[in-house]
């Protein structure tokens, strides 16, 4: 009888250890969706708002290979002396293995954010207030961690919102403050 009792007690203890063991990572579905996202296109809309002006842009990235893309873009920027107050820049560029066919910081930075949106390093220790609800992940990345999390350094904290369809990332929104104090919103919508 003692042997049966000891055996039952051992089984109960073993089950209780397994029940209290590793809990699943609540952010794993987002990480899995990020890893599974291999977009054919990315539509990026930008908006920079300061007390003086609002500037908007539209960038369509068509991926032509693993590390290559065509970028059709149109965005507004402040003009130089002798130009209109707001100038519209519109062109097509190519991206190939880290190199752009144009030297345009706006294009290069926007594409880097779009790439960051599908290559995020969701190290929760580097995020503030992470939360997930209904396939939507939200968190804030402190300025010091933006390069390791987003793949690009940003001079301010960045609020990120990632939306998935349960399988892949469908959109990522970045909100931050620019060096000039403007509020910036960059929304990337992906087609897979």
- The ordered H/E elements are HHEEEEEHEEHEEE
Return the CATH topology.
Answer: outer membrane lipoprotein receptor (LolB), chain A
CATH architecture: Clam
Strand order of the largest sheet: 5-4-3-2-1-10-9-8-7-6
Computed Rg: 23 Å
Query: In terms of per-residue confidence, which ranges show pLDDT below 50 for 5 or more consecutive residues?
Result: 1-23
Number of domains: 1
What fraction strand?
35-45%
Question: Given the C-alpha coordinates, what overall shape results?
Answer: globular
Average residue pLDDT = 79
Alpha-beta classification = alpha+beta
Task: Give me the count of strands.
Answer: 10
**Gap from first CA to last CA:** 63 Å
Number of helices: 4
Q: Tell me roughly what share of residues is in helical segments.
A: 10-25%
Describe the structure.
With 192 residues, the chain is an alpha+beta fold. It has a single domain (26-191), classed as outer membrane lipoprotein receptor (LolB), chain A (Clam), CATH 2.50.20. It has four helices and ten strands, in the order ααβββββαββαβββ. A ten-stranded antiparallel beta sheet has the order 5-4-3-2-1-10-9-8-7-6. The chain starts with a helix and ends with a strand.
